[in-house]
DNA sequence: AAATAATTATGTTATTTAACACCGAATATG
DNA sequence: CATATTCGGTGTTAAATAACATAATTATTT
């Protein structure tokens, strides 16, 4: 196997929620077949149209999953943090990927061949249940997002996006700065608007004292108001 | 058990794809615990906020699953035909329903208690795999829909909705009339626009010879052009 | 059958948002 | 170091769509 990091890690630490589900034999199989890969900032993890070969688990870093839309306008579908599993849906649906994934920052991923996962699922009920639950949660989120993105106005959508980033990635030590730095363009494709509108609306929020902006650093000053904007106009 | 239709039916005929997965014992369990229910046109099958108690399978009729959005504007998330399974996602995600479901027309549903399904899933891998696949397909559709609904223009969205109805419900015997009759309002909430815009755009399509409209009856005259509109503006 | 309500249709206006144009600053590149 | 190139910012215009008003038609109820 090409790259195993000199076995300087334990899978039980790296992918705990998956690993605790498996029997000793099954763990051994995963240990033998998995792979660790690193990605630099902006590197592509997989492309739309690729045939899914591995399930992936984000170990370190941040990843965005997005779809290319109309006229080069892309839409962020999901943003991952450690330790989240991804890239398996298309395999189960028996499709090529309908999304693409890139690393937001320097990132480490654990890959497990989909045939291995497929075989394990068929003999390990808890593993199957794990995926059922995972997919059920994601589908609920997707349905909610559809309504938000289509019905909320720009301010509401941007507020929601900022709050999502907060829930997902949390704050830095200062307790007010979002622990993720997005370009205005990414912020736009997360909240379904043009880049100009993301920029404009962001500075309006800042001028209203709801947030403060320093480059890509966003400080949340009035969490309460942000929630109100996200809910109602 | 209240209503079993005098056992004048066989579950193997009614829910074949589920039933073929089960062992004899498991079939017996489902036979003992299931229920058949009828719903009249516009009757509510379940509500947002309800605790999911049964998995459902649509045996006869048509059902819409929708979310109430902002300002009374609802959004159709999914439309079912026989024999499709539904109402189980929220249970697996451990949530109350985030959608509601109503019957489009006189409808028959088979209900199986979720605890029964949950137990079966934990002992029958093929059943678990069935749900994994089902959910994976639906999640892919949901992600695609999000982009369509947010990025396509009105004409594209309506064209897509009409084509979806065609794929899903097919034609009547005449081979041109859609085999489902939606109110303009439902058509609007399927394609994310106001009712007026659905009405207007529909008559524009008719005036362009792409479709013809007779009340709620829609005939597709130029399938090719409809596809082009759905894809590009 | 009359009355009432819901649905469909059409025209007009207002709002929202995208598109475009331009600039300066920061960052990468040869 | 000079120069592209990307990124963030702002103002202006144009396009898409919602909101509103009103009326005709069709269903539903009394």
Question: In words, what does this structure look like?
Answer:
Two copies of one chain form a homodimer. Chain A is elongated, with a radius of gyration of 19 Å. In chain A, 45% of the residues lie in helices and 21% in strands. In chain A, helix 5 crosses helix 6. Chain A is built from ten helices and ten strands. The first copy, chain A, folds into two domains: 145 residues, Jelly Rolls, CATH 2.60.120.10; 80 residues, Winged helix-like DNA-binding domain superfamily/Winged helix DNA-binding domain (Arc Repressor Mutant, subunit A), CATH 1.10.10.10. In chain A, the strands form three sheets. In chain A, strands 1-8-3-6 form a four-stranded antiparallel β-sheet. The first copy, chain A, has a four-stranded antiparallel β-sheet with strand order 2-7-4-5, covered by helices on one side. Chain A has a two-stranded antiparallel sheet with strand order 9-10. By secondary structure, chain A is of the alpha+beta class. Chains A and B meet through helix 4, helix 5 and helix 6 of A and helix 4, helix 5 and helix 6 of B. The structure holds a DNA duplex (30 and 30 nucleotides).
């Amino acid at each position: 196997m090409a790259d195993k990091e000199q076995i300087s890690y334990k899978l039980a630490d790296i992918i705990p929620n998956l690993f605790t589900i498996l029997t000793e034999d099954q763990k051994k199989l995963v240990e033998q077949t998995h792979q660790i890969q690193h990605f630099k900032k902006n590197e592509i993890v997989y492309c739309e149209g690729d045939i899914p070969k591995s399930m992936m688990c984000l170990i370190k870093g941040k990843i965005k999953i997005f779809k290319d839309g109309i006229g080069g306008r892309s839409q962020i579908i999901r943003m991952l943090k450690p330790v989240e599993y991804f890239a398996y849906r298309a395999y189960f649906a028996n499709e090529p990927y309908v999304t693409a994934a890139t690393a937001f920052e320097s990132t480490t991923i654990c890959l497990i061949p989909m045939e291995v996962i497929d075989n394990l699922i068929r003999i390990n009920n808890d593993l199957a249940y794990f995926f059922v639950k995972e997919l059920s949660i994601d589908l609920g989120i997707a349905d909610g997002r559809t309504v938000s993105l289509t019905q909320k106005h720009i301010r509401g959508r941007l507020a929601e996006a900022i709050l999502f980033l907060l829930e997902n990635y949390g704050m830095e030590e200062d307790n007010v700065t979002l622990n993720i730095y997005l370009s205005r363009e990414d912020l736009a494709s997360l909240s379904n608007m043009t880049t100009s509108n993301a920029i404009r609306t962001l500075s309006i929020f800042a001028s209203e004292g709801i947030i403060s902006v320093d480059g890509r650093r966003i400080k949340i000053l009035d969490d309460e108001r942000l929630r109100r904007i996200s809910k109602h106009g």
